[in-house]
Amino acid sequence: MPYSCQSKNELFISKGYNSLSIYGSRYDLWTSKSKTFWIPAITSSSKGVVSPSSRNIQIDEQMKVENKDISKREDIKILVDRFYEKVKSDKLLGPVFSHVDWPHHLPIMYNFWSSMLLGDQTYSGNPLQKHLHLQIGREHFSRWLELFKETVNENFQGEIAEDAMKRADSIAGIFQYKMGLNT
Predict the structure, then answer these.
(1) How far is CA 47 from CA 65, 125, 151, 165, 177, in A?
(2) What is the pLDDT, as a whole number, of residue 133?
(3) Rounded to whole angstroms, how far apart are CA atoms 173 and 179?
(4) Which residue in 81, 91, 90, 19 sits closest to 51, CA to CA?
(5) Looking at the chain, which runs of residues are DSSP E strands?
(6) Could you tell me how far CA 133 lies from the centroid of its own chain?
(7) CA-CA distance, 106 to 99, in Å (whole number)?
(8) What is the pLDDT of residues 49-98, one digit of tens each?
(9) Are 23 and 57 in contact (CB under 8 A)?
(10) Which helix (H) or strand (E) holds 102?
């Protein structure tokens, strides 16, 4: 039977499972090799996958997530899903990508980033071509990079995570140059 604290922060505890709800966002308690840490929970909604980390929640230092490096396709999916949740709800980027068929697009992004970071060669295509028709400027690229790096840093740390951010910088630079936005 769950317990509840009557305040803005609610604590729910059930047999074998701990979850903390902070201002409506849920964090799950995980224990591994004598370490205990909180991780943002992913919940389903009628609008798809929702990640509390996409809501700019300030996490108390004691609750900070111990991040690992990106090492497998599942990590790529976490990165891509959480990043695009932020993009979809962003005031600047959301309208630009409102036409996207997300169930079709997300697997393409999993393949793109898996190819870039894990070398699995699952992506083929021309990502620049897909963006040329969009009405975007330098401010869109700056915001895209900000959200991408924020998502990487919230969820991962290590050599491949650093490589992901460097590659994002490179991609943004090349796209801006090719789109004539580097002036």
Answers:
(1) 26, 28, 20, 28, 35
(2) 86
(3) 10
(4) 81
(5) 9-14, 17-22, 25-32, 35-40, 43-45, 48-50
(6) 25
(7) 13
(8) 334 444 444 444 444 446 799 999 999 999 999 999 999 999 999 999 99
(9) yes
(10) helix 102-118
Closest by Cα among 73, 52, 26 to 154: 52
79 vs 37: CA distance, rounded Å: 19
Per the prediction, the chain carries an average pLDDT of 76
Classify residue 131 by its DSSP letter.
Answer: H
Phi, psi of 30 (to 5 degrees): -125, 145
- Residue 159, pLDDT > 50, answer yes
Residue 58 burial class via C-beta count within 10 angstroms: exposed 0-12, middle 13-18, buried 19 and up = exposed
Token readout for 106 is 């997300």
Tokens of 33: 């090799």
Give 78: exposed, middle or buried? Use CB within 10 Å, 0-12, 13-18, 19+: buried
